[in-house]
Design goal:
This protein has about 100 residues and is an alpha+beta fold. The chain contains 3 helices and 3 strands.
């Protein structure tokens, strides 16, 4: 059997997945304590980070909670919506491409 020396080189260009910001929006009904609860339980923020984000939401009308891939951001938005509804709050979470 003859020996053949074959060298194959394939180059794959993989782009990083797009990232999406999850944003909480201020309203006049959701309590600050509940927003902090959402930030600590869903977004795994520590107490100080949660306080800072909550104040940003309160003062500026919205605040970024985290930056994730599409599927994770979508899941976080759904989790916020479900938890807010279960607790009787109209807290709105949205996502936008970074």
């Amino acid at each position: 059997m003859p020996k053949t020396d074959v060298s194959l080189e394939t180059i794959y260009a993989l782009d990083d997945p797009k990232k999406y910001k999850v944003i909480l929006h201020n309203d006049h009904y959701t309590s600050m304590d509940f927003v902090i609860h959402v930030l600590t339980s869903i977004f795994h923020k520590n107490a100080m980070e949660a306080q800072e984000i909550m104040l940003q939401i309160h003062e500026k009308g919205k605040g970024t909670c985290g930056i994730y891939t599409y599927e994770i951001a979508q899941t976080k938005v759904a989790q916020v919506s479900r938890l807010a509804k279960q607790n009787g709050f109209p807290l709105l979470a949205t996502m936008e491409e970074e």
